[in-house]
Amino acid sequence: MTDTKEIKKTKYLNPYVGGVLLGLVLLSANFIAGRGLGASGAIKSVVVTTMTTVAPSSAANSGFVKEFRQSHEGNPMKTWLVFEMLGVLVGGFLSGAVAGRLKLKVEHSPKITSRKRLILALTGGVLFGFGSQLGRGCTSGAALSGMAVLSLGGFITMMAIFGTAFALAYFFRKNWI
Amino acid sequence: MKPLKWLALFIIPLGLVIAAVPPNTAKPYKLTADQLLAEANTRTQYVTPDVVADMIVNKDPSLQLIDVRSQDEFEKYSLSGAINIPLTDLLSEKYTDILNQDVKMNVFYSNGTVTANEAWMLTRQLGYSNIYVLEGGLNFWFDSILNPQEPASTSPDEEFAKYDFRKSAGAVLGGGGAIQAQADQLSAASSPKPAITGAPKKKKVAGGC
Amino acid sequence: MIARLHDKKTITMGPLVTNGIISENLNLFLAFIIGIGFGFVLEQSGFSSSRKLAGIFYGYDTVVLKVFFTGAITCMLGLLFFSLFGWIDLSLVYINPTYLTSAIVGGIIMGAGFIIGGYCPGTSFCGAAIGKLDGLIFVGGLFIGVLIFGLGYKLWEGLYMAKNLGSPKISSVLGLSDGIFALLLILAALAMFWAAEWAEKKFPREEY
Q: Model pTM?
């Protein structure tokens, strides 16, 4: 289903082809492990590890750590999502290497400075990290994987994420366009 | 042809097929006698009273307790939120929707485990999923949840945590009539959690993202 | 939920791990392989570029919408057909629980994070992997955000736990069969793709 003329116009894979491949990756995750993909869960493992290492006593009493421990036995870093996200780093790097996109840079609209872009990225990251814990998963874990298994929560989270981003898009247009 | 048209050409027919297939056949297989025996041997159908008590207390909406004893016995005593499907009526059509579904976790219970296991066996053979049996039945429920034994002072901490949980769960679940439970369920979503200490360890697949 | 606890069946069907067909360590190794596939596809599709991702919200680049929905639909169809052929027991596949309040509030916060930061967690790792410093900083932000959630857990525990609906499927909530819902979703997605291609023509921009 590749139409070479269409693809040559862009440096990226055709989005529908990419989508089908993404779907197959997600399907294999479901078939092998009985679960979807995720990203923020790996960060959660790192945070739990940090909390337990830095302040073991207060971490043991934290409801957050307890809740994590209820569903994960053993070393919090030895979880499915941590390994999957290590794979994402490798896979992303390989893809960038193949396509010649490996380059240290800050990507931003010419209307803002690199510094402002980095501050915005940090702010966005903090919000996304917080929201992903509250919403029990991010775009990949809750929305994408949830939608694939027809989870009601997946659809709700997906609509809330994209709805809010669309609603706020106007106010942040200078950062992107 | 444009990629979008290619995509449409593939997924619309697939969508039509999956929509046209009657939902029943898309449900899990029926079990053969061998598989059922294997499942029974591994005792995977049992849920412990601690897990059930925890789910009742936390008003977990995925729990559906099903009392397979007679109506008389059900009216005398039943677990909070349970519905009554006597074993004799198990295959009646009016209960098919409750039993054959993949949303809730159906837990059969009887006084011991014999009747509940018969119900489990029958429904599993029909290929219904999410069917479980309360381990030890109501008798064990009384012993473990409503009337727990204090562990010996030499026991490990886990035993004490379990005991504390059982005691506090027992206090909350002490009464537990069917009618009260119905009312409870209606307001379940908004009502505050009863104070429970040290919930038992639940195993779930690590989910979320 | 307990379903996954003791489902070591003797049947050879998916999910392979839950059914005890492959070991825990092999599972982690496969997680790594699946991750490589995930990262590779994301990067190849252009998800390592925040300006490309943000394009969906301004109509100049709709790759997010297309990849996201095509991916979800492919997997959904795959699961439904696998289940039809008896290759996978769908009752053992993890379905995220729905806590109504936190799903909405969390989603809103994530949406704000998306438009401000330009990434989502998975894509920020991808960006960081090819040297995008904004992606790397976003990952740092994620860590701080999760840490704040963890440290102040008591403050939002009530919100986090409110309105637990269990793990319902959207199809059963709407009273449709999975198949019919899948077909409707496919048609809706194709309509969106068509509108997206129209928008890209209307607001053309150079690709980032």
A: 0.70
- Which domains does chain B carry? 1-209 (3.40.250.10)
Do C58 and A65 make contact, defined as CB atoms within 8 angstroms? no
Work out whether strand B46-47 and strand B63-67 pair parallel, antiparallel, or are unpaired: unpaired
Query: What ipTM does the predicted assembly reach?
Result: 0.90
- Residue B72 gets which letter from DSSP? H
Q: To probe the interface with C, which of A24, A26, A82, A117 has the most C CB atoms within 10 Å?
A: A26
d(CA C40, CA C38): 6
Chain-chain contact of B26 with C166 (C-beta, under 8 angstroms) = no
Show which of residues 21-60 on chain C sit within 8 Å of chain B, judged by CB atoms.
none
Helices of type H across chain C? 24-44, 50-54, 63-84, 100-117, 121-129, 133-151, 153-161, 170-173, 178-202
* C15: preceding bond cis by omega (within 30 degrees): yes
A75: which DSSP letter? -
In the prediction, which pLDDT does C12 show? 56
User: Which residues of chain B are under the pLDDT cut of 70?
Assistant: 1, 23-32, 174-209
At C132-180, the pLDDT tens digits run 999 999 999 999 999 999 998 889 888 888 888 888 889 888 888 889 9
pLDDT, position B31: 65
Query: How many CB atoms are located within 10 Å of the residue C19 CB?
Result: 19
Distance between CA C49 and CA A11 in Å, rounded? 12
Cα-based torsion angle of the residue sequence A155, A156, A161, A162 in order, rounded to the nearest 10 degrees: 60
**Strand, coil or helix: C86:** coil
Asked if A72 and A171 touch (Cβ cutoff 8 Å), the reply is: no
CB C44, CB A93: distance < 8 Å: no
In DSSP terms, which residues pair with B42 in a beta bridge?
Answer: none
CB contact under 8 A, C168 and B103: yes
Q: What are phi and psi of B199, to 5 degrees?
A: -60, 150
C104 contact residues in A (CB cutoff 8 A) = 156-157, 160
Sign of CA dihedral C6, B205, C47, C25: negative
Residue A153, helix vs strand vs coil: helix
User: Which residues in chain C (76-135) have CB-CB distances under 8 A to chain A?
Assistant: 76-79, 82, 87-88, 90, 92-100, 102-135
What is residue A7's DSSP assignment? H
Long-range contacts of range B187-191, CB-CB < 8 Å, 24 or more positions apart? Answer: B188/B59, B188/B61, B189/B59, B189/C163, B189/C164, B189/C165, B190/C163, B191/B59
